[in-house]
Amino acid sequence: MKGLLLIALVSFSLTAAFGQSGGNRNGNKKKKNVSYMTKDRMQREENKFLEKQWWLGLKGGTNLTKAIVTTHFSGVSPTNYPVREAFKEYEDFKSYGSQVTLEGTFYFRQLSLSLQPTYSRSKFVYANHYAWSDPEIAGNSLELHYSQAQKTEHLVIPLLVRYDITATRLRPFIQAGAFAALLINAGKEVTISGTDYASGGEHEFTGDPIIVGASDLFAPVYYGLMGGVGAHYHQGNVRLSLDIAYRYGLTNIVSPSNRYGNDRLAGVGDAMDDMTMDNIVISVGCVFPLRFLGNAYKAVDNK
């Protein structure tokens, strides 16, 4: 009797032990399934996250300016030579300016819509040449040269559409859009030099520059188109950029009603031409994503 009871107890213990072991194996399988599903779901969420992103940052650089004359004007009316000889000579893309930009960009599947308010300082130079001679005394003459530098400050507000050509760490892109430029300030510096042959010899001279505020001579706002190329480099959660853009002015940057309004400039025979303004703009920058997955995840991409 005691032997039967002992056999029964041993059988019950073995059954319970195998049952518990089987339960643990089943439980482990369930945990593995739950873990696998969670990881797969997280990957899908990460892919959705990477399809769209907000970026915010700063960039700055330099610019070169070209003034394109649409109508010529002069403060001097020549009587003994063609008026064309009094036209100004412009320097194209020779004077450097600068700009700083706040960039806000929404990215979605390699396409971006970017608003980039920019404080821009530009400079362009033109020159006038005049000659006077005494018809009664041979060699009694005077040559004058006026070099005039225009410096403008604008708040340029471009709205650009950008396309990333690749989705790799180094991403070349193209962009295009339109802009409005609001005048902040402007000035002119006139340097007068020449050669005087009327004193019995050849005497070269240079006068003190005339520096005046010229905001009234420029239009309060002008508009244009903009396009360019560049590249982004992704470094962790930071995007470094280099871009070259061309701003193509469409409207007159000069105020026609104030063309002759400055007495000091009118005194040296200056009258600004009607013109548009183009710029070559070179910028480097750094922007940051505004949406993060977490500290351990690089939000820019998973390449």
Task: Report the sheet with the most strands, covering strand number, pairing sense and barrel closure.
Answer: 12 strands, antiparallel
**Strand pairing plus helix content: what structural class?**
alpha+beta
Basic shape: elongated
Number of domains: 1
Describe the structure.
The chain is α+β, with helices and mostly antiparallel strands. It has one domain (52-289). The chain is built from two helices and twelve strands. The chain has helices spanning 2-51, 263-267, and strands at residues 52-71, 89-91, 96-108, 111-115, 118-133, 141-164, 170-196, 203-206, 210-213, 221-235, 238-249, 274-289. Strands 1, 2, 3, 4, 5, 6, 7, 8, 9, 10, 11 and 12 form a twelve-stranded antiparallel beta sheet that branches. The longest helix is centred in the first third of the chain and has 50 residues, at 2-51. It is elongated and about 100 Å long. Residues 1-10, 12-36 and 293-297 have low confidence and may be disordered.
